[in-house]
Every structure is written in structure tokens, then in C-alpha cells.
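Review form for a predicted model. The reviewer records the input and the model, then writes brief findings.
Reviewer: anonymous (R2)
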Amino acid sequence: MAKCSICADKARKKIDAALVMEGATIRGIAAKFRVSEDALARHVKNGHVLERIAKAQKAQDIVEADALLNEILEIQQHQKTIFQEARDRTIEGFKAPDNKLALEALRDQSKIVELKGKVLGSFVKDVAKTTPAGAAIVAPLTPEAARKIGDIVANSL
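Model under review:
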């Protein structure tokens, strides 16, 4: 099978860029780059430009997802710092953890973990679709349970 002469052309990137410009014509592009109108038409007809656009879009999507993940990781690090500071708080030399702030930080941390999972594609099913309306997903924590969870998380950081 013969290779597309446009795909093999040294100016392919410029040719493909010209093809997606508004108002571009096969005749005008062929004349500008000194290629055959028929070869250029086959290049477009056979989807070679679309393949390239799809690859470029996929690469752009990966770059954007990576940037979003980096932002999430940065926020997560700040959240861990807030949690740790709330747990380590002292007043007049005595340990006095701010359990309310620590619990809020844990709740926010769970949202960050969920968001990170969505960005990474870890969550396949939507909980809202699989959980009956009005059903409690998690029971409210007692203050003692919140302290225990806080201690476990603090020890794992």
C-alpha cells in the first residue's frame, strides 16, 4: 500500500494547519505548498488530517488533566497541613487540638480524594445513581469517633 504523499511531505504540519483554517481551499493550499490537488484531496478524504487532530486533542487532554491533578495535589498538601496544625495546636503550653477544625479538614480531604479519583478515572459508578434517594451513605460521627479517626489520620501522615 502506497504511503500518502502529503503525510510524507516535510511541510505536513503546515499543510494540515492550513487545511483546518477557515476559508481554506484544496486548490489554494496545493498551490501554496506545491503539492498535487488530488493528493491533498485524498489526504483529507482518507482522514489523515482528522487522525492528527484527534492525536493532538488527546495530547492536550492529557496535559490539562495533568495540570488539574497537580493543582489538586497542591490543595491536598495544604489541607494536610491545616489538619496537622489543628491536631497539634497548643494553648499556653498545653496540647489543645482544635477537633472541629480537624474534622472540617478531614471532610474537605475526603472531597479532595474523591475529586482526585474522578480526575484519575478511579470511580466508574456514580454513587448518586446506585444509592436509593434519601439513604444515608455515612452515619454522622460522634465526637469520640471523630477524635479516633483524627488520631489515625494524624499518625498516617
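Findings: The CA atoms of residues 31 and 126 lie 53 Å apart.
Further findings: DSSP finds eight helices and two strands in the chain.
Recommendation: see findings above.
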